[in-house]
């Protein structure tokens, strides 16, 4: 017998395909598309999402670490994968053998890789990262040209890409402009020296939404969030048609475990941070921070029950969360509740939940825990 899920995520694979088509349309057919699938494809499930993206027109995958890269190679041997995090010395041998593309930030990394590659009689395929203001990985922009010129002389190093990363593309147009100028100067200086790495890339989701992409400087983009139909919200405004055109891929649900009437003056949940101001109808839901529903949602977020937004009351606990269902009509044990997604005419986006929790949508989706089964829908027409 099929048992009810208590807390689960429905992943709409058709929505991913539509988002990919929208990205293609926006970026132009000649530009390559790297879909970023780190952190279990932003919580959507790496294996299923990667397989689906392979069938629907991604060119390259972006991942955080070697394990994620190898997972992709097991599904699609030979697919281009770029590891966006630094490659640890202890990972280099395997990374080179498995032909995972690597991000490098300095000469030391390049030399170490060169030795590993030479020993194997193989090439290490590298993307040189330029730090234009993110301050995380990458060579300082003033030193990038020198390093790029040294690479061809290192045995076994193949320079496949040149990249940078924006620190505030959704927030700050002037700073993004500053980063672009630094990067575009590096690209130009390299060209003047006859160096043309095949892939030049910088645009994350926010840059895709806010920046003009002149083909001369960039020929690949690296969206993560947009692939999943979530937009990076910041101080820079976004055209209103976006919300309509992007399809949110993930719907996160749980169930009503118990319905009860509570009298006035009753403290609810740990610490009694909520005390009923009047007699109330309360539902106890089968979700908690053990499922990745952030504790910060306590007394702040809303959850859809009976097609209406019901306020979370009291603290979120490990496995259960309470909501005020006073306006929700008839509610009974076993009913579905929606944490992210639509129910009837009501909807809660990952962005909205993030705001309630004082965080960002990336953290909301990557935090959904292993306890939450991902259930896949659509995708057959690939
Ligand atoms: C995560 C990441 C991306 C994708 O970022 P989004 O904001 O989700 O589009 C692109 N590039 C690098 C280097 C990243 O680490």
Number of strands: 20
Task: Spell out which ligands are present.
Answer: pyridoxal-5'-phosphate
Averaged pLDDT, please? 95
Give the helix level as a range of percent.
25-40%
Number of helices: 12
Provide an overview of this structure:
- It is a single chain.
- By secondary structure, the chain is an alpha/beta fold.
- Helix 3 packs across helix 4 and helix 7 packs parallel to helix 8 (173-192).
- The chain has helices spanning 13-27, 38-42, 46-55, 66-75, 92-97, 107-120, 141-150, 173-192, 205-210, 241-245, 350-356, 361-366; strands spanning 7-12, 32-36, 60-63, 81-86, 101-104, 124-131, 139-140, 157-164, 199-203, 220-221, 250-262, 267-268, 274-275, 280-285, 302-305, 308-311, 321-324, 336-343, 346-348, 374-377.
Question: Quick summary of this structure?
Answer:
The protein has twelve helices and 20 strands.
Which properties best describe this structure?
382 residues; alpha/beta; nine-stranded mixed sheet; eight-stranded parallel β-barrel; elongated
